[in-house]
Design a protein that fits this description.
Layout: H1 14-17, H2 23-26, H3 34-42, H4 45-49, H5 72-75, H6 78-87, H7 91-94, H8 100-104, E1 105-107, E2 117-118, H9 122-134, E3 146-161, E4 164-170, E5 173-180, E6 186-190, E7 199-200, H10 211-215, H11 221-235, H12 242-255, H13 261-271, E8 278-284, E9 290-298, E10 301-307, E11 314-321, E12 335-347
Antiparallel strand pairs: 1-4, 2-8, 3-4, 3-5, 3-12, 5-6, 6-7, 8-9, 9-10, 10-11, 11-12
Helix pairs in contact: 9-13, 11-12, 11-13, 12-13
Length: about 350
Amino acid sequence: MNASPSHRPHPAEWTETQSLLPSAERDLPAGRHQFHKEQMMARIHEDLRTPSRTSGTSPVAPVKRSNPFLRRAVLLPAAAFALAGAVVGGLALTGGADDGRTALATGPALTTRIGAADAKGAPQLLERISLAAADTSAPAPRRGQYIYIASKVADTYVKTVGDKSEVVSDELHSRQVWNSIDGRDGWLIEAGATSDKGITLKGDTPFTGAYNALAELPTDPDTLLRRIYRESDAVRDPEVPRDQAAFVAIGDLLFESYPPAEVGAALYKAAAKIPGVVAVNDAVDATGRHGVAIARESDGERTEWIFDKKTLQFLGQRIVVVKATAGDPLKVGTVTHTSAITERAVVDANKQLPGQVS
């Protein structure tokens, strides 16, 4: 059986999934892969919205999410995450040999040098990032347009076949996402997860990171942060610290989304008010670009938002193991998830590439 963090249950979920997973997977330290699993769940939110978009699965009612802070697994209840695993092809849970992730597992663990963290420097850096986000000439999308985001992503995880486990990494691969501004239509193309032509994201439940949803958020940082805490507290796994859940929720709104400038600026100012947030002097995105980072550590892993050192433009995210845990095969310096935004644009039609004439 092939297992990845996107399908490894948190201890709170074992009652729903323990019959489906080998005991070796359940022996991993509690919570270690929670936030890496979170990143993976962000990449399959489409499957939760429309049950028919992945072939070979039984129809399952989509999980409804109406606010932009419900960040997939880290905030969803245990039963919802168990449902999510079943919707995504059923391959990792049932040991299907055609799991696209198997083909992508091409090498040893991704590792990195861990940058130095500075708690005192975080507020100043976030203030500068906020000012840079507010000073933008990016066009506001119009009704009928789509947000296009291209990225490079890769993951490191524990793969178990029979009684043998090993730490492997995905091949760095491309991901392209289109989302309508109302969040009800879109398209996804990702190597190892979809065919070359991709899959539809059309569904009755709107994508919670859609432009229209973000545009309705408060721009006062204190008001915004209170809302983030309130919404995430209502649904987060109780084993996930509330400050980390809030940090992760903001990070989700920064990656595959296109927030209005004033909302983006407010999100950074809100993040500065979360306890435990630090500045990191050096971090590397999935394409090798070095930058500074805003980060927060939880359960031995540090989630980092990476920014260009000069322009302070958002580059990507990564999750790095920064503390060793007895019995955990993922060692200090392991990069369990890495991503890089390579292009972000407003286009006139679904599946249209920037620069193409519709």
